[in-house]
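Checklist before submission:
- one chain only
- standard amino acids only
- sequence pasted in full

Submission:
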Amino acid sequence: MNGKQPTLNGAVFRIVGPNIYWLCQDEVLLLPVGNFTDKGRVREGLAIAVAMGATTIRLHTCGISLGESYSVESSLGAYGNWDIHDYGRHLGLKIMTSQTLKFCLLEVIYAAGQYGLRVILPLTDNYTNVRWRGLSTDNHAALFYTNSQTVADYATYVSNFMSRVNTYNRLKYANDPTILAWETGNELGGYIGAEGYPPLAWTNAAAAQIRAIDTNHLIIDGTNGIYNYSSKATAPGLNAGSVNLMSDHGYPRNIALLKAEVPLLGTKGFLIGEYDWTNSFGGDSLANYLSYLESTGTYMGDMIWGIMGHDAQCCNWVTHSDGCALSSTPSLPIHMLNVSE
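Returned file contents:
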Protein backbone atom coordinates (compact mmCIF):
# COMPACT_ATOMS: atom_id res chain seq x y z
CA MET A 1 0.00 0.00 0.00
CA ASN A 2 1.05 3.55 -0.70
CA GLY A 3 -1.22 5.41 1.68
CA LYS A 4 -4.72 4.33 0.69
CA GLN A 5 -3.58 3.17 -2.77
CA PRO A 6 -3.04 -0.58 -3.30
CA THR A 7 0.18 -1.28 -5.17
CA LEU A 8 1.68 -4.33 -6.83
CA ASN A 9 5.43 -4.52 -7.29
CA GLY A 10 5.57 -0.79 -6.69
CA ALA A 11 2.97 0.11 -9.34
CA VAL A 12 -0.60 1.34 -8.83
CA PHE A 13 -3.03 -1.56 -8.63
CA ARG A 14 -6.79 -1.16 -8.89
CA ILE A 15 -8.95 -3.92 -7.49
CA VAL A 16 -11.67 -4.65 -10.02
CA GLY A 17 -13.44 -7.87 -10.92
CA PRO A 18 -16.22 -10.25 -9.93
CA ASN A 19 -17.24 -12.34 -7.00
CA ILE A 20 -17.19 -16.05 -7.87
CA TYR A 21 -18.36 -17.28 -4.51
CA TRP A 22 -18.90 -20.92 -5.56
CA LEU A 23 -15.49 -21.51 -7.13
CA CYS A 24 -14.28 -23.94 -4.45
CA GLN A 25 -17.60 -25.37 -3.23
CA ASP A 26 -20.42 -25.43 -5.74
CA GLU A 27 -24.00 -25.62 -4.58
CA VAL A 28 -25.55 -23.53 -7.37
CA LEU A 29 -25.97 -26.67 -9.51
CA LEU A 30 -28.20 -28.20 -6.82
CA LEU A 31 -25.31 -30.21 -5.44
CA PRO A 32 -25.11 -30.65 -1.66
CA VAL A 33 -23.50 -27.65 0.00
CA GLY A 34 -19.77 -28.21 0.28
CA ASN A 35 -19.27 -30.27 -2.87
CA PHE A 36 -16.20 -29.47 -4.94
CA THR A 37 -16.60 -27.50 -8.13
CA ASP A 38 -16.22 -29.11 -11.55
CA LYS A 39 -12.88 -28.22 -13.13
CA GLY A 40 -14.54 -26.96 -16.29
CA ARG A 41 -16.66 -24.51 -14.32
CA VAL A 42 -13.59 -23.34 -12.43
CA ARG A 43 -11.65 -22.65 -15.61
CA GLU A 44 -14.58 -20.96 -17.32
CA GLY A 45 -15.25 -18.73 -14.34
CA LEU A 46 -11.64 -17.58 -14.34
CA ALA A 47 -11.67 -17.08 -18.12
CA ILE A 48 -14.83 -14.94 -17.93
CA ALA A 49 -13.18 -12.75 -15.29
CA VAL A 50 -10.09 -12.28 -17.47
CA ALA A 51 -12.20 -11.53 -20.56
CA MET A 52 -13.99 -8.79 -18.63
CA GLY A 53 -10.70 -7.16 -17.72
CA ALA A 54 -10.64 -8.23 -14.08
CA THR A 55 -7.52 -7.88 -11.99
CA THR A 56 -8.97 -9.59 -8.93
CA ILE A 57 -11.61 -12.14 -7.91
CA ARG A 58 -13.30 -12.58 -4.53
CA LEU A 59 -13.83 -16.20 -3.50
CA HIS A 60 -16.03 -16.83 -0.46
CA THR A 61 -15.98 -20.63 -0.46
CA CYS A 62 -12.21 -20.76 -0.91
CA GLY A 63 -11.74 -18.92 2.40
CA ILE A 64 -14.92 -19.64 4.37
CA SER A 65 -15.02 -23.42 4.59
CA LEU A 66 -16.53 -24.63 7.83
CA GLY A 67 -19.22 -26.98 9.05
CA GLU A 68 -19.83 -29.32 6.12
CA SER A 69 -18.49 -32.84 5.85
CA TYR A 70 -16.12 -31.78 3.04
CA SER A 71 -15.05 -28.41 4.47
CA VAL A 72 -11.56 -27.35 5.40
CA GLU A 73 -12.77 -27.49 9.02
CA SER A 74 -15.56 -30.05 8.87
CA SER A 75 -16.29 -29.89 12.59
CA LEU A 76 -14.74 -28.02 15.47
CA GLY A 77 -10.99 -28.63 15.33
CA ALA A 78 -11.21 -31.24 12.52
CA TYR A 79 -8.92 -30.11 9.69
CA GLY A 80 -7.67 -33.34 8.18
CA ASN A 81 -4.85 -33.80 5.69
CA TRP A 82 -4.28 -31.71 2.55
CA ASP A 83 -1.50 -33.82 1.07
CA ILE A 84 -3.01 -34.90 -2.24
CA HIS A 85 -1.38 -34.39 -5.61
CA ASP A 86 -4.35 -34.06 -7.97
CA TYR A 87 -7.98 -33.78 -7.00
CA GLY A 88 -8.85 -34.51 -10.66
CA ARG A 89 -7.95 -38.14 -10.20
CA HIS A 90 -10.62 -38.38 -7.52
CA LEU A 91 -13.44 -37.09 -9.69
CA GLY A 92 -14.32 -40.59 -10.87
CA LEU A 93 -14.98 -41.69 -7.32
CA LYS A 94 -18.54 -41.80 -6.11
CA ILE A 95 -17.50 -41.01 -2.55
CA MET A 96 -16.35 -37.45 -1.95
CA THR A 97 -13.59 -36.90 0.61
CA SER A 98 -12.62 -33.84 2.61
CA GLN A 99 -9.14 -34.14 1.13
CA THR A 100 -10.59 -33.90 -2.38
CA LEU A 101 -12.28 -30.61 -1.58
CA LYS A 102 -9.21 -29.23 0.12
CA PHE A 103 -7.15 -29.98 -2.91
CA CYS A 104 -9.79 -28.44 -5.15
CA LEU A 105 -9.16 -25.27 -3.13
CA LEU A 106 -5.42 -25.52 -3.74
CA GLU A 107 -5.91 -25.96 -7.47
CA VAL A 108 -8.33 -23.04 -7.71
CA ILE A 109 -5.83 -20.66 -6.11
CA TYR A 110 -3.05 -21.98 -8.34
CA ALA A 111 -5.23 -21.71 -11.47
CA ALA A 112 -6.20 -18.13 -10.63
CA GLY A 113 -2.52 -17.26 -10.57
CA GLN A 114 -1.99 -18.93 -13.93
CA TYR A 115 -4.74 -16.69 -15.34
CA GLY A 116 -2.95 -13.63 -13.98
CA LEU A 117 -5.61 -12.88 -11.38
CA ARG A 118 -5.24 -11.87 -7.74
CA VAL A 119 -7.53 -13.35 -5.09
CA ILE A 120 -9.38 -11.97 -2.05
CA LEU A 121 -10.35 -14.56 0.55
CA PRO A 122 -12.94 -13.78 3.26
CA LEU A 123 -12.30 -15.91 6.35
CA THR A 124 -15.61 -16.32 8.22
CA ASP A 125 -19.34 -15.72 8.25
CA ASN A 126 -19.31 -15.82 12.10
CA TYR A 127 -22.36 -18.07 12.68
CA THR A 128 -20.77 -21.53 12.43
CA ASN A 129 -18.38 -21.14 15.35
CA VAL A 130 -21.17 -19.87 17.59
CA ARG A 131 -23.33 -22.90 16.79
CA TRP A 132 -20.41 -25.30 17.30
CA ARG A 133 -19.91 -23.95 20.80
CA GLY A 134 -23.61 -24.26 21.60
CA LEU A 135 -23.95 -20.54 22.11
CA SER A 136 -26.92 -18.36 21.35
CA THR A 137 -27.14 -16.89 17.86
CA ASP A 138 -29.33 -14.07 19.15
CA ASN A 139 -28.41 -10.55 18.10
CA HIS A 140 -26.98 -11.89 14.87
CA ALA A 141 -24.50 -14.20 16.62
CA ALA A 142 -22.80 -11.26 18.32
CA LEU A 143 -21.16 -13.62 20.84
CA PHE A 144 -18.76 -14.61 18.09
CA TYR A 145 -16.84 -11.40 18.71
CA THR A 146 -16.63 -11.56 22.50
CA ASN A 147 -16.74 -15.19 23.63
CA SER A 148 -13.24 -16.40 24.45
CA GLN A 149 -13.83 -19.81 22.83
CA THR A 150 -15.09 -18.49 19.50
CA VAL A 151 -12.34 -15.87 19.39
CA ALA A 152 -9.79 -18.65 19.90
CA ASP A 153 -11.54 -20.86 17.33
CA TYR A 154 -11.26 -18.13 14.70
CA ALA A 155 -7.58 -17.64 15.47
CA THR A 156 -6.95 -21.39 15.15
CA TYR A 157 -8.75 -21.52 11.80
CA VAL A 158 -6.79 -18.56 10.47
CA SER A 159 -3.50 -20.05 11.60
CA ASN A 160 -4.28 -23.48 10.17
CA PHE A 161 -5.58 -22.12 6.88
CA MET A 162 -2.87 -19.58 6.18
CA SER A 163 -0.03 -21.93 7.10
CA ARG A 164 -0.98 -24.54 4.50
CA VAL A 165 1.34 -25.17 1.58
CA ASN A 166 -0.14 -25.30 -1.92
CA THR A 167 1.00 -28.59 -3.42
CA TYR A 168 0.90 -27.14 -6.94
CA ASN A 169 3.38 -24.32 -6.43
CA ARG A 170 4.90 -25.33 -3.06
CA LEU A 171 4.08 -21.94 -1.59
CA LYS A 172 2.57 -21.39 1.82
CA TYR A 173 -0.62 -19.36 1.50
CA ALA A 174 1.02 -16.63 3.54
CA ASN A 175 3.68 -16.34 0.80
CA ASP A 176 1.57 -16.92 -2.32
CA PRO A 177 1.54 -13.81 -4.57
CA THR A 178 -1.76 -14.89 -6.13
CA ILE A 179 -3.47 -13.97 -2.86
CA LEU A 180 -3.95 -10.22 -2.73
CA ALA A 181 -5.78 -9.86 0.56
CA TRP A 182 -7.36 -11.59 3.50
CA GLU A 183 -10.77 -10.28 4.51
CA THR A 184 -11.59 -10.74 8.19
CA GLY A 185 -15.07 -11.98 7.25
CA ASN A 186 -18.01 -11.53 4.93
CA GLU A 187 -20.63 -8.86 5.64
CA LEU A 188 -19.78 -8.73 9.32
CA GLY A 189 -22.25 -6.58 11.20
CA GLY A 190 -24.79 -6.62 8.37
CA TYR A 191 -25.61 -3.78 6.00
CA ILE A 192 -24.16 -0.48 7.33
CA GLY A 193 -23.76 -2.10 10.73
CA ALA A 194 -27.45 -2.84 11.21
CA GLU A 195 -26.55 -6.03 13.11
CA GLY A 196 -23.91 -4.29 15.22
CA TYR A 197 -20.40 -3.52 14.01
CA PRO A 198 -17.63 -5.94 15.05
CA PRO A 199 -15.93 -4.46 18.13
CA LEU A 200 -12.56 -2.82 17.60
CA ALA A 201 -10.96 -5.31 20.00
CA TRP A 202 -12.07 -8.20 17.79
CA THR A 203 -10.94 -6.55 14.55
CA ASN A 204 -7.58 -5.66 16.08
CA ALA A 205 -7.13 -9.23 17.32
CA ALA A 206 -8.16 -10.71 13.95
CA ALA A 207 -5.79 -8.43 12.05
CA ALA A 208 -2.98 -9.17 14.49
CA GLN A 209 -3.52 -12.91 14.07
CA ILE A 210 -3.31 -12.56 10.27
CA ARG A 211 -0.29 -10.27 10.40
CA ALA A 212 1.58 -12.57 12.79
CA ILE A 213 1.53 -15.26 10.10
CA ASP A 214 1.56 -13.16 6.93
CA THR A 215 3.42 -9.90 6.40
CA ASN A 216 3.01 -10.03 2.62
CA HIS A 217 -0.69 -9.50 1.93
CA LEU A 218 -3.30 -6.85 2.56
CA ILE A 219 -5.93 -7.06 5.29
CA ILE A 220 -9.50 -5.98 4.58
CA ASP A 221 -11.97 -5.27 7.36
CA GLY A 222 -14.95 -7.49 6.49
CA THR A 223 -17.40 -5.06 8.09
CA ASN A 224 -20.28 -4.41 5.69
CA GLY A 225 -20.19 -0.64 5.35
CA ILE A 226 -18.47 1.94 7.51
CA TYR A 227 -21.20 4.53 8.09
CA ASN A 228 -24.82 4.22 9.16
CA TYR A 229 -26.69 7.21 7.79
CA SER A 230 -29.54 6.74 10.30
CA SER A 231 -27.61 6.36 13.56
CA LYS A 232 -24.45 8.13 12.30
CA ALA A 233 -22.42 5.26 13.77
CA THR A 234 -19.11 4.44 12.12
CA ALA A 235 -17.28 1.14 11.87
CA PRO A 236 -14.72 0.62 14.68
CA GLY A 237 -12.42 -1.02 12.14
CA LEU A 238 -11.60 2.46 10.83
CA ASN A 239 -9.33 2.70 13.89
CA ALA A 240 -7.68 -0.71 13.44
CA GLY A 241 -4.04 0.03 12.70
CA SER A 242 -3.26 -3.21 10.85
CA VAL A 243 -6.26 -2.98 8.51
CA ASN A 244 -5.37 -1.73 5.03
CA LEU A 245 -8.82 -1.44 3.42
CA MET A 246 -12.40 -0.97 4.56
CA SER A 247 -15.32 -2.46 2.64
CA ASP A 248 -18.95 -1.94 1.74
CA HIS A 249 -21.53 -3.77 -0.37
CA GLY A 250 -23.85 -1.95 -2.75
CA TYR A 251 -27.35 -3.31 -2.15
CA PRO A 252 -28.76 -0.96 -3.33
CA ARG A 253 -26.29 1.19 -5.23
CA ASN A 254 -26.07 4.39 -3.19
CA ILE A 255 -23.74 7.17 -4.31
CA ALA A 256 -24.75 9.48 -1.45
CA LEU A 257 -23.70 6.84 1.07
CA LEU A 258 -20.34 6.40 -0.63
CA LYS A 259 -19.79 10.15 -0.56
CA ALA A 260 -20.42 10.08 3.19
CA GLU A 261 -18.04 7.17 3.69
CA VAL A 262 -15.06 8.34 1.65
CA PRO A 263 -14.05 11.20 4.01
CA LEU A 264 -13.95 8.73 6.91
CA LEU A 265 -11.27 6.51 5.37
CA GLY A 266 -8.20 8.45 6.40
CA THR A 267 -5.27 6.52 4.97
CA LYS A 268 -7.20 3.31 4.39
CA GLY A 269 -8.22 2.06 0.97
CA PHE A 270 -11.82 1.22 0.12
CA LEU A 271 -13.34 -1.80 -1.56
CA ILE A 272 -16.91 -2.15 -2.78
CA GLY A 273 -16.70 -5.90 -2.28
CA GLU A 274 -20.08 -6.61 -3.86
CA TYR A 275 -22.71 -4.61 -5.65
CA ASP A 276 -25.87 -5.18 -7.64
CA TRP A 277 -25.03 -4.74 -11.33
CA THR A 278 -28.68 -5.36 -12.33
CA ASN A 279 -31.65 -3.32 -11.17
CA SER A 280 -32.79 -5.96 -8.67
CA PHE A 281 -32.18 -3.77 -5.62
CA GLY A 282 -32.86 -0.36 -7.12
CA GLY A 283 -30.81 2.67 -6.17
CA ASP A 284 -28.69 4.83 -8.43
CA SER A 285 -28.28 3.84 -12.06
CA LEU A 286 -25.44 1.48 -12.82
CA ALA A 287 -23.84 3.98 -15.21
CA ASN A 288 -23.84 6.76 -12.60
CA TYR A 289 -22.60 4.41 -9.90
CA LEU A 290 -19.69 3.19 -11.98
CA SER A 291 -18.90 6.73 -13.07
CA TYR A 292 -18.65 7.83 -9.44
CA LEU A 293 -16.44 4.88 -8.52
CA GLU A 294 -14.11 5.70 -11.39
CA SER A 295 -13.98 9.37 -10.43
CA THR A 296 -12.74 8.64 -6.91
CA GLY A 297 -9.37 7.48 -8.15
CA THR A 298 -7.60 4.17 -8.37
CA TYR A 299 -7.55 3.55 -4.61
CA MET A 300 -11.23 2.48 -4.64
CA GLY A 301 -11.88 -1.05 -5.85
CA ASP A 302 -15.16 -2.56 -6.97
CA MET A 303 -16.36 -6.12 -7.49
CA ILE A 304 -19.66 -7.17 -9.04
CA TRP A 305 -21.93 -9.89 -7.74
CA GLY A 306 -21.46 -12.32 -9.38
CA ILE A 307 -20.27 -14.65 -12.17
CA MET A 308 -22.01 -18.01 -12.60
CA GLY A 309 -20.97 -19.39 -16.01
CA HIS A 310 -22.23 -22.59 -17.65
CA ASP A 311 -23.24 -25.82 -15.99
CA ALA A 312 -20.74 -28.67 -15.84
CA GLN A 313 -22.19 -30.43 -18.88
CA CYS A 314 -22.22 -27.29 -21.03
CA CYS A 315 -24.06 -25.44 -22.40
CA ASN A 316 -26.76 -24.05 -20.14
CA TRP A 317 -26.08 -20.76 -18.36
CA VAL A 318 -26.39 -21.03 -14.59
CA THR A 319 -28.59 -18.49 -12.84
CA HIS A 320 -29.04 -17.67 -9.18
CA SER A 321 -32.14 -17.05 -7.10
CA ASP A 322 -30.99 -13.56 -6.12
CA GLY A 323 -31.38 -12.34 -9.71
CA CYS A 324 -27.85 -10.92 -9.87
CA ALA A 325 -26.08 -13.73 -11.68
CA LEU A 326 -23.90 -12.44 -14.50
CA SER A 327 -24.95 -14.70 -17.35
CA SER A 328 -25.59 -14.32 -21.04
CA THR A 329 -29.30 -13.74 -21.48
CA PRO A 330 -30.94 -11.51 -24.12
CA SER A 331 -32.30 -9.06 -21.52
CA LEU A 332 -28.95 -8.21 -19.96
CA PRO A 333 -26.34 -7.29 -22.60
CA ILE A 334 -26.36 -3.54 -21.91
CA HIS A 335 -25.72 -4.06 -18.20
CA MET A 336 -22.94 -6.52 -18.97
CA LEU A 337 -21.31 -4.02 -21.33
CA ASN A 338 -21.35 -1.31 -18.65
CA VAL A 339 -19.71 -3.60 -16.13
CA SER A 340 -17.15 -4.96 -18.58
CA GLU A 341 -16.07 -1.48 -19.61
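Reviewer check: The first strand starts at residue 7 and ends at 8.
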